[in-house]
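@here heads up, posting the sequence + SMILES for the flavin-adenine dinucleotide run so it's all in one place. Ping me if the SMILES looks off, I pulled it from an old spreadsheet.
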Amino acid sequence: MLLPKFDYHAPANLEEACQIMAHYGDQARLLAGGTDLLIALKKNRIYPSQVVALDRVGELKGVGIDENGLYLGARTTAAEIMEIDFGPGGEALVQAASQVGSPLIRNLATVGGNLATAMPAADMAPPLLALQASVILERYGDQREVELKDFFVCPGEQVMLPEEVMSVIYLPQLPESTGGAFEKLGVRKALERSIVSVAAVVSLAEDNRTIVDARIVLGAVAPTPMLATEAAGSMIGKKAVAKNFAAAASIAAREARPRGLRTSAVYSRLMVETLTIRALTRAFEAASK
Ligand SMILES: Cc1cc2nc3c(=O)[nH]c(=O)nc-3n(C[C@H](O)[C@H](O)[C@H](O)COP(=O)(O)OP(=O)(O)OC[C@H]3O[C@@H](n4cnc5c(N)ncnc54)[C@H](O)[C@@H]3O)c2cc1C
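bot reply: prediction finished. Complex structure tokens:
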């Protein structure tokens, strides 16, 4: 399959990228790792007249700390994320990144592209939601911050304007006694998008047994990655023990809104329950270390 014709831009920095996007608006598409965009182009699902490559835009790369907390450049790849220590709870993101596609895909796939594509099964979205991330969206002469919980709209759609570029993702520093985990079910071991995924992040009280904060996020079982708020809320103030994890998991299964596309809704809910128990158990183990 051939690529359609388009003009190719290779801005040297973020300002230049924003300038080009401001000029062309919805005729232009950003290109990061290309693992989603090139397929969409080849399959004639989109016809941008302009493609704006981000590979020279250094501001979008890597990790650091500034006055707002820990930031992760949108062009950081899944393979790079696997090598980063994000602090308490960050294990969930590292585990999710390590399960994206194959080694080849992980070397190309960026976190910004994973979020911008807004697929319900995007693996890096659930842990980032569980870690209470927000994204910075830049446009020429302006920028805004959007909490990730307000970012996704429906499959394939998020709140970004055509001319906006995601620059960084902010992760708040969570308490030391916090742990995270990510669980995924795919048909095959590699190269497989999630059928169901669950990210869990829990924080413990000083006794190392009582849950003071929890987030459970479900992937691929609703039109967007979704916070299972009732399930997470049910654990606050309770002991981190198997029966409480099981109770929360059964609430999460009820909260899920599977569309029954890749597997039956009944099976999806069963898997939500199983994966939630596993994710909570592993998140607790990480928190109590
Ligand atoms: C064989 C295969 C297996 C896969 N397996 C998985 C999997 O297991 N789990 C999973 O989650 N995904 C999987 N994917 C999907 C894909 O790899 C991810 O969604 C990837 O993270 C997208 O990032 P990218 O850098 O390649 O984005 P691109 O393809 O470059 O871009 C994707 C979209 O995001 C936009 N975009 C990119 N960067 C920015 C930015 N900084 N600001 C604004 N918009 C931006 C682009 O304009 C485009 O619309 C798989 C893909 C393939 C081909």
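MO: The longest helix spans residues 265-287.
MO: One more: The pocket of flavin-adenine dinucleotide is lined by residues 29-37, 39, 54, 60, 74, 100-101, 105, 108-110, 112-114, 116-117, 122-123, 165-166, 191-193 (CB under 6 Å).
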